[in-house]
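User: quick one
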Amino acid sequence: MKIPKHIGIIPDGNRRWAKKNGLEKHEGYKNGINQGLCAFRECQKLGVEELTFYGFTADNTKRPSIQTTSFTKACIDAVELIKKEDAQIYVAGNSLSKMFPDELKEYTKRKFFGKRGIKVNFLINYSWEWDLNIKEENKRIINTIDISRVDLIIRWGGMRRLSGFLPIQSVYSDFYVVDEFWPDYKNEHIYEAIKWYNKQDITLGG
Amino acid sequence: MKIPKHIGIIPDGNRRWAKKNGLEKHEGYKNGINQGLCAFRECQKLGVEELTFYGFTADNTKRPSIQTTSFTKACIDAVELIKKEDAQIYVAGNSLSKMFPDELKEYTKRKFFGKRGIKVNFLINYSWEWDLNIKEENKRIINTIDISRVDLIIRWGGMRRLSGFLPIQSVYSDFYVVDEFWPDYKNEHIYEAIKWYNKQDITLGG
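Assistant: Done. Structure below.
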């Protein structure tokens, strides 16, 4: 079996899980910490070389403080768990902001634990604008400034990947895949995609 | 019904369609031109404001010339069809390269046709490196240079979007969605994702 070298983990659904289980939204996060360790160990066993966990984004920190406190703590706890393993931990995100937890500042340079092993990256107070050094006043960093944010991407041919399609404009896009090949295009595909899009909860990262 | 303002179209599967129909691979492209016009007209009818078609990438031009000639011609023909409609056409891509067709150079500034109407963008000889002005010798443009390309992204919670997750490292990632919420994580999810990943044809844009 071909093992992906680097796996990205987007651990979404904590608040919906809390609601489903009769808890307050913010209580979802602490119920998702151990799962990160499980995922880490499974990937270690499989021989994955690098893992990136989507912790929280700069946009997420605009949520009510009871939530931001909870998910920040959950991220710190997750890092604490992983540092007891064989791992190389790196935390990426805007550490100059007050939303970045002090406890994780030491990881903004990769740190080694145990027998080293898997590289584990946590995105903490991350944003693609921070990552790409995009400044409000200098939008000329991208060539396609005349192309706006993409709301819905429809891909024909069954592949579930962007293949480099407008990476900046696609950061919040909903992604619909049509299994039929493009030459078998039918107008129904567009309708199905939009029907699906209507069921999505569009948050733009908020 | 909520209509997405901007829809991205990734018209993939032309070569597989040709094979399935007993044709040579390169013959798939010319059988996908009219479908672009159909998609345009449906979106126009629905009130979509902007459409972006993924024409071809700089990576694609490394394919055999019988294919590059065919898909380049198909893109030129598609633009020719759309310019007979009410549309604002813009072609984005590296027009300094010899792989960029002369016929489309005039569209590297947006041109208006008929009663204007939908913005239609074609990505032609496009690459995300070109778009982001990333130069081989200057990789410092991104902050997370220590995080490598992501092979597989697994998202829990059912949403099909990246939400800003490492846009540069994710450009060629395969994207697997687990419907269960993160706190309901099971090790099987990882195995299912990797099983699915093994069925994907990894091309890295080639």
